[in-house]
Amino acid sequence: MAIFDLIGREGFVAAPAPPGVTPNFDHPESNGGMYMAGTLTTLCVAFIFVVLRLATKVSMAGRKLGWDDVLIVFALAFSIARATCFIVDIEHYGIAHHVWDLRLPLNRNTWLLHRIGDIMWPPGILCAKVSILMYYLSIFRPSKAFRWTVYGTLVFTICYLVASTLVQIFWCNPVAAAFGIKTPGKKAVCLDGYVTDLAIGALNLLTDIIILVLPMPMLYTLQLSRGRRLGLAAIFAIGAFAVGATLARNVEIAVKLKDSDADQTWDVMYEAVWISIELNVTIICSCLLVCPQLFRYVLTNTKVGQSLRSLFGSTRTTQNSASRGSLSGFNRRGPRSKHYLPQDSEIELDRKSARSFSDEIPEGAIRETRTVDRTIV
């Protein structure tokens, strides 16, 4: 039974309760807390990362906001709008309650806010995915094959998500019926939500996987430090979580919403929360690709960053020198040979012990000339 069918029907309970269950009209059970916890948590994190992303661009000299940054702001705006619609619906209009705990007629806003919230998702996820693909194009310029693959993914993503937006708007005939507005003398004919949502979810899962694996061959050929590789691994792990959210959404549709007489006002929230999490995590992934530039900029161009580098740099030097032993001419395996060259950290300590760069350097240190010739004293 579609939610639309519950609007305007007078004089009876929305649906009979299961055997042994008593309807509770005064204090109905709600799973709206699940939606708000998952949505608001990921939305707040997404908001923070979008702010960091914009700060990265505007704080670095010579950098300007690009179209990928504008798109991610739009994606965040659509996510906020979607969350607002569902939260208001949960708090005031009966969504997230069991259908047998609702009296008819349902408020028109129950379906109206649900439909508007659903319309916010396709353009939101479209902006987030296009932002990621545009960033790919900006950092992998030399590879022609890679660029054409990204272009193809862009076209496919734009086409199916624009189509998804139109499907959400023109869900019923007449169109007003999609928003819970009955037209006198006309019977509403609507799409099969189960089949449509599964098809859109499958296409979305496909593009999620493509976007996740697309840069992997290019990154494999790069010579990156261990720290950079770990950072990229973390980003891909979060991207994999977004793929998992899409998969979980499809499972919820297949399991809970297959029956047209299901407890739809309750079951629909499981799909809704995974859609919101997927959108917010995609926004976070897009920002994670850019935010490391801000951290590097802070470390190299601010007093706080320079102080941190100095602090951790001196700590590493002390640890390295301690692990290699003292500078008295002995290493872990025994006495050093007369041809032993001290390590860089030991050279630094020898310089400090000499208190200057004069010729008065302790025995065993290295004297450096302007021609960078090194001789053992």
Automatic annotation (TrEMBL):
<feature type="transmembrane region" description="Helical">
    <location>
        <begin position="268"/>
        <end position="291"/>
    </location>
</feature>
<feature type="transmembrane region" description="Helical">
    <location>
        <begin position="230"/>
        <end position="248"/>
    </location>
</feature>
<dbReference type="Pfam" id="PF20684">
    <property type="entry name" value="Fung_rhodopsin"/>
</dbReference>
<feature type="transmembrane region" description="Helical">
    <location>
        <begin position="149"/>
        <end position="171"/>
    </location>
</feature>
<feature type="transmembrane region" description="Helical">
    <location>
        <begin position="34"/>
        <end position="55"/>
    </location>
</feature>
<feature type="compositionally biased region" description="Polar residues">
    <location>
        <begin position="317"/>
        <end position="329"/>
    </location>
</feature>
<feature type="transmembrane region" description="Helical">
    <location>
        <begin position="67"/>
        <end position="90"/>
    </location>
</feature>
<keyword id="KW-1133">Transmembrane helix</keyword>
<dbReference type="GO" id="GO:0016020">
    <property type="term" value="C:membrane"/>
</dbReference>
<feature type="region of interest" description="Disordered">
    <location>
        <begin position="317"/>
        <end position="342"/>
    </location>
</feature>
<feature type="transmembrane region" description="Helical">
    <location>
        <begin position="119"/>
        <end position="137"/>
    </location>
</feature>
<protein>
    <recommendedName>
        <fullName>Rhodopsin domain-containing protein</fullName>
    </recommendedName>
</protein>
<feature type="domain" description="Rhodopsin">
    <location>
        <begin position="52"/>
        <end position="296"/>
    </location>
</feature>
<feature type="transmembrane region" description="Helical">
    <location>
        <begin position="198"/>
        <end position="218"/>
    </location>
</feature>
<dbReference type="InterPro" id="IPR052337">
    <property type="entry name" value="SAT4-like"/>
</dbReference>
<comment type="similarity">
    <text>Belongs to the SAT4 family.</text>
</comment>
<dbReference type="InterPro" id="IPR049326">
    <property type="entry name" value="Rhodopsin_dom_fungi"/>
</dbReference>
<keyword id="KW-0812">Transmembrane</keyword>
<keyword id="KW-0472">Membrane</keyword>
